[in-house]
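Quick entry, no commentary yet.
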Amino acid sequence: MTAPRRILVYGVYGAGKSTLAARLAQRLGVPWYPVDDLLWLPGWVEVPVAQQRSRIE
């Protein structure tokens, strides 16, 4: 069995997604990326959709 290339942790706000993702990443020795950092600029200004897609790729 090969290791997954990506793991998506999904849920509502305040559910502990970031905590779970950080712990999984640490345990598995892989990087993790908070989605808020990819989709929002300082001051909660939304990143344009095309740029969001580019960042996520």
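second:
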Amino acid sequence: MSDHVYKMVEIVGSSKEGIDDAIRNAIETSAKSIRHISWFEVVKTTGHVVDGKVAHFQVTLKVGFRIEDE
């Protein structure tokens, strides 16, 4: 097994449905432009309230991905 180098970025996903859906939206959308995503960490969970009800869930994630070797 060769050594690898990773980069970490922070992204925010949102969903009207829930936290799990917000995480999946963030990862699946990011995977369209970031290759080799290996892991994620939930850093913060927030939400948006409208008329006393939860309108959106927002999840801040740290995402790690492997840098390609030449």
